[in-house]
Amino acid sequence: MDLTVLWFGIIAFLFIGYFVLDGFDFGVGMAMPFVSKDDTDRRVVINTIGPVWDLNETWLIVAGASLFAAFPEWYATLFSGFYLPLLLILVALILRGVSFEYRHQRPERLWKQRFDRMIVFGSAVPALLWGVAFANIVRGVPLDSGHNYTGTVFDLLNPYALLGGVTTLLLFLTHGALFLVLKTEGPIHSRARTLAFRAGVVTVVVAAVFLAWTVLEFGTLPALVLAAAAAVALIASVVANIRRKEGAAFTLMAFTIGFAVLTLFASLFPAVMPASNDPANSLTIANASSSPYTLQVMSWTALAALPLILAYQVWTYWVFRKRVTRSHIDSAAHPDTEATVEAAH
Fold this sequence. Notes:
This protein has 345 residues and is an all-alpha fold. The chain is built from twelve helices and two strands, in the order H-H-H-H-H-H-H-H-H-H-E-E-H-H. It has one domain (3-323). The protein is globular and about 60 Å long. Residues 331-345 have low confidence and may be disordered. The chain crosses the membrane at residues 6-32, 74-98, 119-140, 160-182, 194-215, 221-242, 249-273, 293-320.
């Protein structure tokens, strides 16, 4: 297999892992105001992702590093042209991480409320902007002959990209609600199930429009097949949630996100960043990649490292597989027990 094709596939796999795993983290953060009635509820919600949220974010670091090493031209054009959206994503992720660690440091209600808002903000902004960014990559952006972005930030806020952002936001919200259904009991569990249903129904409509737009304007036959698979998985997830098949609903939503990401990558291939003003200026897997020797060294490294990373990820989720309940958090006797986020480290 051509190593450029292989690494295009690996980049797609890493972003699938990131969006599936950190996607439900974003969803849990966005769902917190809808499923929590008091501080103990909010602590339960936070503790469902406390031991794993930072591990999930490492997928983004690995994806970014792999993109830089395998396709440096793609990386340079992407991070220079999309500087402001990516900076906003980074700031939001920092605020969210800080909130997890500092929320429990003081008992004042106002102190906690401020960090709760930062968690919601730090979850919603990346969920929206990742969709905007990837939709623009598929749609194409203006590039000069040196592959430099020549547009403005407002060019990125086009209807297709904004619809992509709303789609990812709704997908992650539903994904997070389904994760809470898996990880909680009692009233939070019931509220999360209701939220997953309501958000899921809206997501079906919005995602159908976005995927149809993608396939009709930018897609290929493989993209059409993958988009159809994403649609089927999404509808099946909503149905499974209605039938109280919690594990199936969450798994099917993960497949939905995976197929959706694959649809975008299939729509791109063999380009990695199409030029909307002149196809001759487009970046492809051929003109954006590193040298064959670099890709060869990276391939052997990935062969050794990826199985270890996946094994550690599976082990972590197995260790923290139990549900989190209000009984685990005695707010009167142990006001800082939400420090599971911290203690899990």
